């Protein structure tokens, strides 16, 4: 335990009790045995959201501003905490060991319980994040493909990657926590009735696009290390799935960015267009109502 503290305190000024007691072997054993449950969750999710849309067709939309404010505030707080508890490990590895180690050696599980527990919480968080779509359905906002495709694929990939202790995941997790910290904080402010400047929404989408580019780059580096026969704790299957996922996200978010900020119609909108799919869908809905 003392050796652990010597390592951990280089990155963290304080270690919480639940972080200290975290046992990655127990969580991995459970996730390895049960990760396919995520498919059932996704199936139920699809039934509920599209069934919910059908149910809401003949019913008035819910406002849910108070609940939405609390929901986004909780997710923003969780994301900020996750970013602060995982980013130090990535920076420490990059500074002291380099790119190869950060991509191929899974020390975030073996040597760092703080990053380990927040990695596990990250994976689990993809399940409650499906609740974002509940608000879309109940508020009768158009449910675009990017929204539900993103939620489903992230959930499935995250749960699968945890069973493999995918070492490159430290990059994906830190990036996602950081982007979500900004994104859900923006959501929360909007739900509370504030009007952050349009530049913030553009910044969020730009960060999302950068996230996809870095994700693809990390996977390409991992593939190169494997081709060079260097030990790398990333499976070829995982690399293929991850590149396909990140590239598809990049295409969809780039298309969204163009429609929201660069097309001629985007300049005519009187309301701020938010970079998140659900908010963009709401603005589209308002536009259609005026036609």
From TrEMBL:
It is a multi-pass membrane protein. It is found in: Membrane. InterPro entries: ELO_CS, ELO_fam. Pfam families: ELO. GO terms for molecular function: fatty acid elongase activity. Keywords: Fatty acid biosynthesis, Fatty acid metabolism, Lipid biosynthesis, Lipid metabolism, Membrane, Transferase, Transmembrane, Transmembrane helix. One of its GO terms (cellular component) is membrane. The chain crosses the membrane at residues 37-56, 68-87, 143-162, 168-187, 199-223, 243-262. PANTHER family: ELONGATION OF VERY LONG CHAIN FATTY ACIDS PROTEIN 6, FATTY ACID ACYL TRANSFERASE-RELATED. Belongs to the ELO family. This is Elongation of very long chain fatty acids protein. It comes from Ranatra chinensis.
């Amino acid at each position: 335990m003392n050796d652990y503290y010597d390592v951990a305190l280089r990155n963290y000024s304080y270690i919480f009790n639940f972080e200290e007691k975290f046992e990655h072997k127990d969580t991995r054993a459970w996730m390895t045995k049960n990760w396919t449950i995520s498919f059932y969750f996704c199936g139920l999710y699809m039934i509920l959201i599209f069934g919910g849309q059908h149910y809401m067709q003949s019913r008035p939309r819910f406002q849910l501003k108070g609940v939405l404010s609390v929901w986004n505030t909780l997710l923003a707080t969780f994301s900020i905490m996750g970013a602060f508890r995982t980013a130090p490990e990535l920076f420490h590895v990059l500074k002291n060991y380099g790119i190869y180690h950060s991509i191929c050696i899974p020390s975030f599980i073996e040597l760092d319980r703080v990053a380990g527990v927040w990695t596990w919480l990250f994976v689990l968080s993809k399940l409650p994040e499906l609740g974002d779509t509940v608000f879309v359905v109940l508020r009768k906002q158009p449910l675009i493909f990017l929204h539900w495709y993103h939620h489903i694929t992230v959930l499935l990939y995250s749960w699968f990657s945890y069973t493999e202790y995918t070492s490159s995941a430290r990059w994906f997790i830190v990036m996602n926590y950081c982007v979500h910290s900004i994104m859900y904080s923006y959501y929360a402010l909007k739900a509370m009735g504030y009007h952050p400047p349009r530049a913030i929404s553009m910044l969020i989408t730009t960060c999302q696009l950068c996230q996809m580019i870095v994700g693809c780059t990390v996977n390409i580096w991992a593939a190169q290390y494997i081709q060079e026969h260097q030990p790398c704790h990333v499976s070829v299957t995982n690399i293929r799935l991850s590149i396909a996922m990140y590239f598809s996200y990049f295409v969809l978010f780039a298309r969204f960015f163009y429609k929201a900020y660069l097309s001629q119609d985007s300049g005519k909108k009187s309301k701020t267009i938010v970079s998140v799919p659900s908010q963009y869908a709401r603005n589209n809905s308002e536009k259609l109502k005026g036609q």
